[in-house]
Amino acid sequence: MEDIDHYELDEDKNVLRTYYRPLHTYRQNDTRLIQVIPKSMEGEVMYFSHVINGCHMGEVKTLDRIRGNFYFPNVYKKVKKFIQSCEDCAKHKSPQTMPRAELFTYGVPAGAGDLISIDILGSGGGLPVSAKDNGCVLTIANHFNSFLDAYPVPDEKARTIAKTLVTCYIWNTVFLPRKFSQIMGIVFGQNCRRSHQLSEAKEVVYISFYGHV
Predict the structure, then answer these.
(1) Domain check: are 77 and 122 in the same one?
(2) How far apart are CA 92 and CA 39, in angstroms?
(3) Per-residue model confidence as pLDDT tens digits over 37-69
(4) Spatial CA neighbour of 21 closest among 8, 9, 38, 4
(5) Same domain, 149 and 195
(6) Which of 58, 110, 130, 192 could bridge across to 134 with cysteines, CB 3.0–4.6 Å?
(7) Its Enzyme Commission number (predicted)?
(8) What would the 3-class secondary structure string for 51-105 be?
């Protein structure tokens, strides 16, 4: 290796340490030397830099930490592969890119109550619980006239939402929605329909946070 310019013998461990000076330094008078790591120690260096001393940092920070102290061939590919195979990172870290579905349009509602959207405010304990044990708010938006209704509910279960939707919204407004959208998931929408036999809602449109599913 042409850029190796320093050797050091560790007599206690009977090891010949090899160093090289990086081609690109932060300062012109930078005289620091980077230790060349043998193939047998590459895994140990990556484990120490990523897990022990790095607290499971990402590829860029782990690579910077290694390059600042060590050198071995194909360091970028090996570090990337090492991090991708880290079990703790796979279990506890969310993917940086989430799958996104194609955008779509609802179309123009045929009349009042034809298309409504429902959502839950305060799910997960975001709102204080009232004297009647209501800790969430069900919001219902009418797409035809942009009118918004809000109803206090004790929880975000499908049965609770369906009961409120029928007894508080449909019975009071006399609008049976032909289709409705929600962001709680497909299973929630199906359970909601079954809870009060909303079979006349011909089409149910399901929306996720990342698009149409």
Answers:
(1) no
(2) 30
(3) 888 888 988 998 888 877 888 888 888 888 878
(4) 4
(5) yes
(6) 130
(7) 2.7.7.49
(8) HHCCCCCCHHHHHHHHHCCEECCCHHHHHHHHHHCCHHHHHHCCCCCCCCCCCCC
